[in-house]
C-alpha cells in the first residue's frame, strides 16, 4: 500500500531531489525586483550570522541575511521594563575582553564595562525539596590552583582555541567523562564554577572533556580567572543587534521574518527560494553561509548531501530555557542557587532550575533552566518547563516561610533556547566526527558557522568567523 501511494505521487516524492539537482530556478517565475543577487547569502541572523554579515559588508562584499524572526540577535534577548525603563539581558551577557570583541562593539558605539557582579546575598537550596543545603565551596586559593593545572592541560592543545581541530587519534583525555578527568588531574575544584559558567550542557560530569573544553577553553578560563570578562555598559546587548539590523536593512541586506523554502546548491553557486512578508524572493549568491543549528528538520530546504546528513544526524542536544518572573516571594537582592547535599560536587539534578537571580528590576528575577541530554530537537515541552519553574518556586516558599513570601509567581517573559547545545558522543568524536564536520566547509559552495561548529560563546564564534570560516568564504569571491 505504501509503495503504491508513493508511486501514484511519484512526481511529488521526487520533487525535493529534483530541486536539489536542478541548476537554476526559472527567473521567469520571479519579477526582476524579487531577484536578489549577492556575493554571500547568510542563513540566521543571531550572533554568528550577524557578525559574519557585518564583517563581509565591511570587506566590500554584497550580502543578504535571511532571518526567521522579526529581529536580529538570536539567543541575545533584552527585556525593558515599561514602568522603570530598566533593560535586562536575559540571554547573552558576557564577552571576552579581546580585540575582536572590542572592535565589534566599538563599531556600533556600544560601550563595554567589566562584568563583575558586585556583592549579592545568595543562598543554596535543594530545589527538589526546597530545603537549605550546606555547600562546601573551594577556597579562592584552591580554585586558583585548580585553574592553573587546567590551564596547563589546555595549553597542550592550542589549536582548540580556534576550533574543534582534533588531531587523530583523538587524545584519550579529551574523550573521558569530565568527572573522571577532574579526578585524574586533581582539579575537582573547578567543577562548580564550570557548571555555573557553562549552563545548558546538562550533567557536566558525564560530558566528554572536549565538549566542556569547547566553552571552558583557554580564552574563557583565563578571562574568568582574571575577572576580565566584559558586558555592555547599558545592560542591553540587543543594542548592538538593533544597530546592525538598521544598517543591514538600509543596505537592502536583510530579510526578516523570512525562511528558505527550497534551494539549489552547486559548485557554481547557490539559489534560494525565500518566503518573506512581501512575497517569494529568489536569491542568487556565489556562496552560502548557514549559521542556524544544524538539525535535520531545520535544514530540510537545503536538500542535504549524504555527507552533511551523516554528520548532523549524530549531534546530540540540550534544551536551555530562560525567563523573567515577577512575584517570586524572594527578596530583590537575593540570588538563590540550586544545589544538592547528596550528589558529587553538590551539583543539582536536571532537568531543573540553575538559579533564580536578581536582575535590577524591583520585584522581578531571572530564572535559568536546563534539560538533560537528548536526541530530540525540543527535549521538554515549554508547558512542562514553565510548570516546573512555578512548582519549584512555590516549594521554596513553602519550605522557607521566614525567608520567602507566599506568592503566585508570574512569567513576564519566557524563552526556549532549544535546541541549545549540539555536541557529539565520545564514540563519534573518537571516530572523527569533528574532522568530518569541518570537511563539509565549502561543499556545494556552502559554509557553516554557529555554536554547533565552535561553542556557545559569542566571542569565540566571532574569532571562529574571522580566523576560520570567513577566509574560506572570501577565497575566490
Ligand atoms: C540564556 C543564554 C545565555 C547565554 N549567555 C551567553 C553569554 O553571556 N556570553 C556568550 O558568549 N554566550 C552566551 N550564550 C551562548 C549564545 O548562544 C552564543 O553566544 C551565540 O548566541 C550563539 O550564536 P549562534 O549564531 O550559533 O546562534 P543564535 O544566536 O541563536 O542565532 C541563530 C539565528 O538563526 C535564526 N534561525 C533559526 N532557524 C532559522 C531558519 N530556518 N531560517 C532563518 N533563520 C533561522 C534564529 O532565529 C537566530 O536568530 C547564551 C545563550 C543563552 C541561551
TrEMBL record:
Annotated keywords: Signal
Database matches in Gene3D superfamilies: 1.10.405.20, 3.30.70.1990, FAD/NAD(P)-binding domain
UniProt keyword Ligase, yes or no: no
UniProt GO MF annotations: oxidoreductase activity
Coiled-coil boundaries: none
The UniProt record lists the keyword Signal: yes
Domain of life: Eukaryota
InterPro entries: FAD/NAD-bd_sf, Zeta_carotene_desat/Oxidored
SUPFAM superfamilies on file: FAD/NAD(P)-binding domain
Signal peptide segment: 1-20
Identification of the protein by name: Putative FAD dependent oxidoreductase
Amino acid at each position: 500500500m505504501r509503495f503504491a501511494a508513493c508511486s501514484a505521487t511519484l512526481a511529488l516524492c521526487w520533487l525535493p531531489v529534483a530541486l536539489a539537482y536542478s541548476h537554476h530556478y526559472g527567473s521567469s517565475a520571479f519579477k526582476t525586483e524579487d531577484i536578489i543577487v549577492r556575493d554571500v547569502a547568510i542563513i540566521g541572523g543571531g550572533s554568528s550570522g550577524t557578525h559574519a554579515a557585518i564583517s563581509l559588508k565591511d570587506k566590500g562584499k554584497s550580502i543578504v541575511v535571511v532571518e526567521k524572526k522579526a529581529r536580529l540577535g538570536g539567543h541575545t534577548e533584552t527585556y525593558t521594563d515599561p514602568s522603570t525603563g530598566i533593560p535586562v539581558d536575559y540571554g547573552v551577557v558576557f564577552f571576552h575582553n579581546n580585540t575582536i570583541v572590542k572592535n565589534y562593539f566599538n563599531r556600533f558605539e556600544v560601550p563595554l564595562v567589566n562584568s563583575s557582579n558586585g556583592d549579592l546575598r545568595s543562598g543554596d537550596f535543594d530545589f527538589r525539596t526546597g530545603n537549605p543545603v550546606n555547600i562546601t565551596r573551594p577556597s579562592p586559593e584552591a580554585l586558583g590552583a585548580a585553574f592553573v593545572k587546567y590551564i596547563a592541560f589546555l595549553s597542550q592543545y592550542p589549536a582548540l582555541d580556534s576550533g574543534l581541530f582534533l588531531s587523530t587519534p583523538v587524545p584519550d583525555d579529551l574523550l573521558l567523562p569530565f568527572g573522571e578527568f577532574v579526578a585524574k588531574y586533581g582539579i575537582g575544584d573547578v567543577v562548580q564554577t564550570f557548571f555555573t559558567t557553562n549552563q545548558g550542557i546538562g550533567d557536566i560530569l558525564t560530558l566528554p572533556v572536549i565538549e566542556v573544553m569547547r566553552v571552558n577553553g583557554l580564552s574563557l578560563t583565563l578571562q574568568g580567572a582574571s575577572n576580565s570578562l566584559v558586558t555592555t555598559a547599558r545592560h542591553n546587548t540587543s543594542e548592538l543587534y538593533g544597530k546592525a539590523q538598521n544598517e543591514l536593512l538600509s543596505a537592502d541586506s536583510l530579510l526578516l521574518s523570512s525562511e528558505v523554502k527550497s534551494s539549489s546548491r552547486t559548485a557554481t553557486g547557490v539559489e534560494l527560494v525565500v518566503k518573506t512578508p512581501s512575497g517569494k524572493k529568489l536569491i542568487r549568491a556565489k556562496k552560502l553561509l548557514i549559521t542556524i543549528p544544524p538539525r535535520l528538520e531545520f535544514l530540510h530546504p537545503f536538500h542535504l548531501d549524504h555527507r552533511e546528513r551523516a554528520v548532523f544526524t549524530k549531534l546530540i542536544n540540550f534544551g536551555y530555557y530562560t525567563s523573567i518572573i515577577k512575584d517570586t516571594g524572594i527578596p530583590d537582592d537575593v540570588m538563590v542557587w540550586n544545589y544538592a547535599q547528596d550528589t558529587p560536587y553538590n551539583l543539582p539534578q536536571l532537568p531543573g532550575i540553575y538559579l533564580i537571580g536578581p536582575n535590577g528590576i524591583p520585584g522581578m528575577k531571572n530564572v535559568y533552566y536546563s534539560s538533560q541530554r537528548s536526541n530530540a530537537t525540543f527535549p521538554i515541552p515549554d508547558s512542562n518547563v514553565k510548570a516546573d519553574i512555578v512548582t519549584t518556586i512555590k516549594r521554596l516558599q513553602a519550605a522557607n516561610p521566614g525567608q520567602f513570601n507566599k506568592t503566585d509567581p508570574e512569567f513576564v517573559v519566557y524563552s526556549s533556547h532549544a535546541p541549545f547545545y549540539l555536541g557529539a558522543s565520545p564514540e563519534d568524536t573518537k571516530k572523527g566526527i569533528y574532522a568530518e564536520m569541518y570537511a563539509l566547509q565549502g561543499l556545494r559552495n556552502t559554509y557553516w558557522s554557529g555554536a554547533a561548529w565552535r561553542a556557545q560563546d559569542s566571542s569565540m564564534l566571532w574569532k571562529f568567523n574571522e580566523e576560520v570560516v570567513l577566509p574560506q568564504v572570501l577565497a575566490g569571491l
